[in-house]
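Hi support team,

I'm filing this because I wasn't sure whether my run with calcium ion finished correctly. The job status page said complete, but I'd like someone to confirm that the output block is well-formed before I use it downstream. Pasting the exact inputs I used:
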Amino acid sequence: MRCTHFMESRPPTWLADAFFYEVYPQSFLDTNGDGIGDLPGVIAKLDYIRSLGCNAIWLNPCFESPFGDAGYDISDFYKVAPRYGSNADLTRLFKEAHKRGMRVCLDLVAGHTSTEHPWFKQSSKDGSNSFTNRYVWMNNVFSGPPPGLSMISGFSEREGNYITNFFHFQPALNYGFAKPDPQKPWQLPVDHPDCLATREEMKNIMRYWLDAGADGFRVDMASSLVKGDKDFKETMKLWADMRAMYDAEYPDAVLIAEWSDPARAIAAGFHIDFLIHFNDPSYTSLFRSEPERDLFGFFKNVPPSFFDRKGKGDICAFLDSYLKHFRKTRRSGYISIPSGNHDIMRLAEGRTMDELKVAFTFLMTMPGVPYLYCGDEIGMGYVRGLVSKEGGYNRTGSRTPMQWTKGRNAGFSTAPAKNLYLSIDPARNRPTIEAQEKDPDSLLNHIRQLATLRREHPALGGDGDFEPLYAKRNRYPFVYQRKLGGQRVLVAVNPSDQPVTVMIEASCSKATVLDGVDTTMERAGKKWLIRMGGVSSGIFTLEA
Ligand code: GLC
Ligand code: CA
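And here is everything the job wrote out:
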């Protein structure tokens, strides 16, 4: 088996100025009146997505599935779910996106399938067949789960329990155990031919869609594949092997991790890793403040959010962790801080449009690759009181249909309201794309301006250096510098509602404002004075 440790090859160059848009297909745009968003709907809105400045899409799973977990329970990796369209529609999406200079990445649910998958049906039979070891099965139905794992017993005629990866109907695919227990022969080593077969099949699935025109994959629960792998060494080797396939066969395609440990994920071979809601409270310290804002409930004491007008947050809680990851991944891959996703509380929860603008000024001027979750560009709200849909539970409120217009069903669908995938946000003042398009001061247009600034200033892009200039524990604002070649850009954000004035060192002779609200920067002897109103931000170019 090939074992690569640190990745030496650089990520594809297009990532340096990539800006991704996450499309949640079922809630995006319904074109055939069945109440569910579909691929022709995504194609119809490509020009809109492009108009935001986004040049790449991450599409949540769109494959055949019983939809117990909104499509993260796949029953056929090679077939588009009929509710979204056909394989030909997906290929057409790739083509239409490419015509517009955009890329499309799919979602790879590598860790598990649905119990409805034909592999699992074979695997759950008594006796032995080529899928017997495709999943992790213990050998005695009356034994308990190994530490840290969950299992289901009594599912079928097969003796033994299967290990699950998430919900009960998502059996874990078998990539082996890092340190198989010799007393438990059902724990296979990672290089067992049946575990290697699982791995090869995942590669074939990727090849199939990459050959059809996909530009890469976001990998679901990327750290979950090898079991009993405390230090993730074997999981990292596995991804290094996958990355070797990318480097050899698809050098322009990208591997994006849902790991939330960029230092590890990128060393393992991923080009991008998200900093999100698990493993590390740094994301939570930026955007979530009350316990309910952490939908997965991973953190017992959710720290006060820095991006909150109460001004009780601590930027250092984020920076301490971020800088460690940033330094370790600087040349080999990108960290992404998304505006949100289908699993977490909407960014707009508890925030005004002005506060959202400040949050986006930060999101769009940090290093790495920005990701916008569909609907966040207009500040779509988290909808309370919905009955769980397709395994969403409290995530359901972040998954409601896009609000395109002020018309019927917010322009999402022509179906009777009762047939919609989820009901439209009932809020009377719910934001719409139609209204924000017309308003030059809208969040939507603010994001467009930020995307333009980022594109026009490579220092603000993925590869620019990052240096905090003012970041103090429990203090506001946060000021940082981005730099590339001779270009320097300073960004100041003050999410709190209190005006602030700070002195910073910036060896420059001239500062010119590029964008901002209520923020000035003037010379004060050898230093510079930054004055900011409450809930404000400023972006300046600096000249030597
Ligand atoms: C990831 C997905 C989430 C899904 C889970 C299981 O966290 O983002 O939506 O439920 O994995 O596949
Ligand atoms: Ca439809």
